[in-house]
Amino acid sequence: MKSVSEIAPFIALVSESEAHESETEKALSLISSKPVGNSLLKAINESSTSDKFITIISSSKANSSALGHLTDSQLTKYKVPSSTNPLRWATDKAAEISTHERLGGAGEGVSVNIYWNKDQAIKI
């Protein structure tokens, strides 16, 4: 299932079921209910564009993790070398360019997929 979060409409949701989508929305609601979480979501909203965005992929089979990826305009700008695995190259390039300038990167924003398994989540 693909949708947009009701709690954070600047976040796309991909869920294996309605139950998983509901759990993802509950988690986002909990995050937004706390001052720090609300500030985090506000900062994400202000940084999001039609080209740079967050997608939460909710699945009982996923290991919770995050993976940056290039936007369409960045794929055009950086051009994938023909002699390489395009997915691996794009993931590595996203990590490289999103690293802060003082660490040798461009500090350029990228999109991100967050893989979330509610059974691996920890309540703090």
UniProtKB/TrEMBL annotation:
This is Effector protein. It comes from Candidatus Pantoea floridensis. The lineage of its organism: Bacteria, Pseudomonadati, Pseudomonadota, Gammaproteobacteria, Enterobacterales. It comes from the Bacteria.
